[in-house]
Amino acid sequence: MKFAIHPVAGRMPGHMNVLLAEAGVPYDMIYDMADINEAFAATDVALVIGANDVVNPAARTDKSSPIYGMPILDADRARQVYVIKRGQGKGYSGVENELFYANNCAMVYGDAQAVLTQMVQAVKEVEVASLKAAA
Q1: Residues recognised as catalytic
Q2: From the centroid of its chain, how far is CA 17?
Q3: Are 86 and 50 in contact (CB under 8 A)?
Q4: What distance in Å separates the CA atoms of residue 34 and residue 100, rounded to the nearest whole number?
Q5: What distance in Å separates the CA atoms of residue 10 and residue 32, rounded to the nearest whole number?
Q6: Does residue 81 sit in helix, strand or coil?
Q7: Pairing relationship of beta strands 105-109 and 80-85 according to DSSP bridges
Q8: CA 124 centroid distance within chain
Q9: CB burial class (10 A; 0-12, 13-18, 19+) of residue 39?
């Protein structure tokens, strides 16, 4: 597991690093965009929490987009992407996020902490069932 942070994520530079540190995430698991982007193409699952513009592939692909040319996290290149958001709102740019409509993306609406707790529990249940079946 790795944590990727876009340079402008959070309310100020470094904000997300501080929040992850406060949550007990070891610093060696936190990657800056430049250090993680190439890895997304070989990533099975990317979990995006609350982001909009910073993961919008239109920044790479749509020359008519106001965010074209903006550096983004290449989460869309993962085999499967889950995006957790409170609702369907757009980012600061007001641009619709192409990632949200991609075949490899599933949207999960709700409070991130509650959704993540449910996801972790579901994975644990699958693991237990798999171990029982193998025994």
Answers
A1: 53
A2: 15
A3: yes
A4: 23
A5: 14
A6: strand
A7: parallel
A8: 21
A9: middle
Among the listed residues 113, 112, 117, 104, the one whose alpha carbon sits nearest the alpha carbon of residue 74: 104
Structure token digits, residue 35: 């250090």
pLDDT digit of tens for each residue in the chain (135 aa)? Answer: 898 988 777 667 777 888 888 889 998 998 989 999 999 999 999 999 988 899 999 999 999 999 999 999 999 999 999 999 998 778 788 899 999 999 999 999 999 999 999 999 999 999 888 888 887
- Report CA-CA distances (Å) from 31 to 4, 16, 49, 72, 89: 5, 11, 15, 14, 26
Q: Please give the torsion angle defined by the CA atoms of residues 3, 113, 86 and 52, in that order, rounded to the nearest 10 degrees.
A: -10
Which 8-state DSSP code applies to residue 110? S
Query: Would you state the structure tokens that stand for residue 83, as one six-digit string?
Result: 């995006």
